[in-house]
Amino acid sequence: MENKTPLSPHIQIYKWHISSLVSISHRITGIINIIVITFVCLLASLLVFGENNYEFMNLFLSSLIGKFFILGITWSFSFQILSEIRHLIMDLGYGFNLKVTKISGLIVIIGSIVLTVVFYLIGKNIF
Amino acid sequence: MGQINLPNNSKVTKGKYFKDKTGSKNLRKINVYRWDPSIGKNPRIDTYEVDMDNCPSKVLDILNKIKNEIDPTLTYRRSCAHGVCGSCAMNIGGKNGLACTTPHSQINGDIDIYPLPHLKVKKDLIGDLDGLYKQYQSIEPWLKSNSKSETKEIIQSKKDRAKLDGAYECIMCACCSTSCPSYWWNGDKYLGPAVLLQAYRWIVDSRDEERTARLKKVADELKLYRCHTILNCTSACPKGLNPAKAIAEIKKMLATANI
Q1: A103 in a domain, yes or no?
Q2: At which of B102, B127, B152 does a domain end?
Q3: Which residue of A has its CA nearest to B10?
Q4: Residue A1 has pLDDT above 50, yes or no
Q5: Per-residue pLDDT at B87 exceeds 90
Q6: Which of B94, B127, B160 is the endpoint of a domain?
Q7: Which pLDDT value is given to residue B1?
């Protein structure tokens, strides 16, 4: 009888809001960042083994996938940093008002996109 | 990390459709989670067409209308109908709240009504809150003032009394705890927002003498630090309280108190 008792639906039915979205994205970008850092280290250590590897990396990074990869990383790091600042402020006990959490969440989301564009433009030597 | 998908016996199926018999033009579809332990089948969603012309303003009024006029087998908890007892806590339109204080005009389209999330269902909209009550008991939610006389009044300044505002109003309806993903995945160990708000309420009480012991008790990676400020709790609280802030305050006390 006990095993037959169903579990009520949870994540399937619960409404998302900005804070929960930022929180889950914080985790996901955190995992991505760790993988990316490992990958960048691997690429860097490839360079040690000679010129050909440099050619290979250059080819990869200037391809469409490579560019997408770089933009993705930039966004992921931007998001993580902004969200982390938000968490630090919350750890100090500020910004728990529902309106404030909404605004700070929006700042994180929009700010991460703005930062990505800024970094892209810096990379293009526009400034 | 918990299981994201529902176990097989909990998958929700399509249920019965109760067509309107009143002939009203102002109808609303209400989808209600149903599970009957005596049948032993998977839970289902029954849909009721409800005449909104003759229905008061709150979601609980709809449920009462369904129970009284359409389907008397519908089971749910309710008592005061004024947002004081916390019995009718459920998931309405994807968000936890009290059926008696949630106006149905706030929800667009069909209204989905589920029991509080990630609980063992006893019947229909009734979830099993035993685990939560045990955790509540574990924080010993009563005044401990061993040195002072039991018969004499313990005086509290207005300033100290004000610290309890925003914590003592909690009605333990469990809307916050059952809205918390951390509590879904680690509900057996993590105390959850409702219980931690109460823990905070006794920690900051100036009359209580076991503040340090209380702090030590909750200072545990799983009991306390599973809060990742998702803030589902604060946005769910029907009394407008802020459990997330209370948890942050406990964390802050632990970080500064040198225990």
Answers
A1: yes
A2: B127
A3: A6
A4: no
A5: yes
A6: B127
A7: 53
CATH number of the domain to which A101 belongs: 1.20.1300.10
Would an 8 Å CB–CB cutoff place B208 in contact with chain A? no
Confidence bin at B36 (pLDDT 50/70/90): very high
Q: Decide the pairing of beta strands B13-18 and B27-34.
A: unpaired
Print the SS3 string covering B73-123.
CCCCCCCCCCCCCCCCEEEECCEEEECCCCEHHHCCCCEEEECCCCCEEEE
Q: Is A99 on the interface with B (CB under 8 A)?
A: no
Q: What is the pLDDT of residue A2?
A: 47
Rounded Cα distance, A41 and A43, in Å: 5
- Are residues B182 and B211 part of one domain? yes
The chain-wide mean pLDDT, for chain B, equals 94
Mean pLDDT of chain A, nearest integer: 91
The number of domains in chain B is 2
Domain count of the fold of chain A: 1
B211: tokens are 């503040």
Residues of the domain holding A89 = 18-123
Please check whether residues B35 and B116 belong to one and the same domain: yes
- Residue from the list A8, A87, A96 with its beta carbon closest to the beta carbon of B119: A8
Instruction: Please tell me if residue B9 touches chain A, with a CB cutoff of 8 Å.
Output: yes
Give a yes or no: residue A2 inside a domain: no
Query: pLDDT digits over B233-253, tens only?
Result: 999 999 999 999 999 999 999
First to last CA, chain A: 69
Instruction: Tell me if A13 is assigned to some domain.
Output: no
Q: ipTM score here?
A: 0.89
Instruction: At B44, list the tokens.
Output: 């289902």
Using the Cα atoms of residue B143, residue B149, residue B155 and residue B156 in order, give the sign of their dihedral: negative
Non-local CB neighbours of B95 within 8 Å, separated by 6+ positions: A14, A15, B179, B235, B236
Question: Minimal Cα–Cα distance from A35 to chain B, Å?
Answer: 20
How many Å is the Cα radius of gyration of chain B? 21
- In this prediction, residues B53-74 reach a mean pLDDT of 96
With respect to residue A99, please indicate whether it lies within any of the assigned structural domains. Answer: yes
Asked if residue B189 and residue B84 are part of one domain, the reply reads no
pLDDT at B151 over 80: no
- Do B134 and B123 share a domain, yes or no? no
Whole-angstrom Cα distance, residue B47 to residue B112? 9
Tell me the residue range of the domain where B29 lies.
Answer: 8-127
CA–CA separation, B20 and B22 (whole Å): 6
